Request: fold
Amino acid sequence: MHRNLEHSEEKRLRQERIRSLIEELIKSLGEDPGRDGLRDTPDRVSKMLVEELAMGYFVDPQVYVKTFEVEEYASREGLVAVTNIPIRSLCEHHLLPFFGYAHVVYIPSGKVLGFSKFARVIKVLSSRLQIQERLTEQVADFLNEVLNPRGLMVLIEALHTCALIRGVEESMTMTTMAVRGVFEEQKDMVNLALQIVNSSKLQLPKFEGF
Ligand SMILES: [Zn+2]
Reply:
């Protein structure tokens, strides 16, 4: 688990280090970091990384966890689906973004998590250098731990700009799924969860002939 560094001196120092490395990168490309268009770029990029795209290194997702008990769920088999949670992450192989949606379906054993908290937790876990497969497993492990549900399914669909802009396969989408609890053994439960997700999920943009 990452320490919460949200308002720390350590975070300020790392942002400063990233700033000078970006300046060095610009120089190494043969560019003049002092010219008009580039002058503020090191600042802007380091801030964007620390505050947005890589903010997951500075925030512990546990700070967003406030589960509450719904007694009815302790004795009944209810099912909760939270779909179309935005994913914005950086692929660790190319440092380029991948983006899409995560869908979570779970069968609570009593504890539930507030609607918006799913997006927050997933934002923290995805704002690190990731591969989609590991991100999916980490989201499943994290939610499984805090909710202790009877079953859990996490599905992520994403477009990878490293494939998109390098002309690999423009409209290639990656889908990853992780299951825990009853979803590991009961295929019909997985099918039911997939039906629910499919009926409400948003489509990713297509870039055919791009
Ligand atoms: Zn990549």
Residues 63-200 form a domain with the GTP Cyclohydrolase I, domain 2 fold (CATH 3.30.1130.10).
